Amino acid sequence: MRNDLPAPLPIEPACLPHLQQPVVLGLSGGRDSVALLRLLVQQGCCVRALHVHHGIRAAEADADAAFCARLCEQLDVPFELQRVDVPALAQEQGVSLETAGRHARRWLMAAAARRCQGCTVALAHHADDQAETVLFRLARGAAGMRGMLPVHKAGGITWLRPILNWRRADITSWLQALKQPWRDDSTNAVPDVARNALRLEAIPALNKAMGRDVVPILGRSARLHAETLEALEAALEALPSLDPQGRLYLPFVWQQPQVLQKAIVHRYLQQHAVADISEELVLAILAILPADAPASRVNLPGNRRACRRERRLIITRDY
Questions:
Q1: Domain count, the chain
Q2: What angle do helix axes 31-42 and 168-178 make, rounded to 10 degrees?
Q3: Nearest to residue 142, comparing CAs of 4, 281, 245?
């Protein structure tokens, strides 16, 4: 690390061991991902950058891609550009542009990570993003104050958030000290989608109503909830809920109270990388578990199904 570079804030401790492996960074060109790129390079990490062009914002998006390519060339970082027609995906999947773009980015980052030895992706979420996520999930009816974790594993990929404890203002100050420019996405300044409205309107209103900065409070609530979930995960791990083939063993599940059944089914879906797990989905699966239930299968996202077969629950895929 060069001694003349401004010192950044500390990296999330849980991320440090994983950053010894090759890591793929989703580089949008915005302030947050540019800061994370500079941080990883400064720390001597073996980083590869992936920029996803969404087929939206025309010349502005082209300029973002060109900026990312130049920055990576300056920093001697391998750079990959992927183009995706997000409007077409959104129409095909029946989801918003924001959701289609997020799914496309996650899939492409996971694919890029699998081509690297470490199977690791770094994401540039920070403390203000964490507060937005907590409010967003609460407003959608998600359980508790669940936020983002510094490290989580899904689908064989390790997902890292090394700057989850940084504030947006800290990122701005650090990049300015580095004399490092970034790209601003003009759509982020318009409160026309939920997350923009939370950032631009809801959180400032909460700050005013509470007479304090609520971002650290929401972050602490997310951390405490994550610790509770970690304890629950350890308890669920010790239960004999799976058979030797890894299928959900229903005779054991039938004996548990419903609140524990819900936790067991939710964890089983997570282990199979089922996306968008809602309470409604968990309850629908619980309804097919009894041996005398009229139905024996439930459709899952991604053309998959949860099926009851011979006192087991299994996840299958439609082809």
A1: 2
A2: 60
A3: 281
Give domain status of residue 7, yes or no: no
Which of 17-21, 118-122, 225-229 shows the lowest mean pLDDT across its residues? 225-229
Identify whether 128 is part of a domain. yes
User: Mean pLDDT across the stretch 254-277?
Assistant: 91
Neighbours of 248 (CB within 10 A): 25
From its phi and psi, is residue 212 left (phi > 0), alpha (psi between -120 and 50) or beta? beta
| Strand order across the 151-154 sheet | 79-83, 47-53, 23-26, 120-122, 157-160, 151-154
Q: How far is CA 25 from the centre of its chain?
A: 13
Give the mean model confidence (pLDDT) for residues 122-126.
Answer: 96
Pick from 197, 215, 248: which residue ends a domain?
197
E strand or H helix that includes residue 83: strand 79-83
Q: Torsions phi, psi of 50, nearest 5?
A: -125, 125
Tell whether 39 is covered by a domain: yes
In this structure, the answer to whether residues 98 and 17 fall within a common structural domain is yes
Above pLDDT 70, what percent of the chain? 95
Total-model pTM: 0.79
The answer to whether residues 88 and 176 belong to one domain is yes
Query: Domain containing 68: what range?
Result: 13-197
> Do 94 and 188 have their domain in common?
yes
- Contact present, 50 and 26 (Cβ < 8 Å): yes
Give, in degrees to the nearest 5, the angle at Cα 304 between 303 and 305.
135
User: What proportion of the chain, given as a percentage, has pLDDT over 90?
Assistant: 64
Mean pLDDT computed over 57-69? 92
Q: What's the pLDDT score for residue 1?
A: 44
Choosing from 141, 170, 197, the residue where a domain stops is: 197
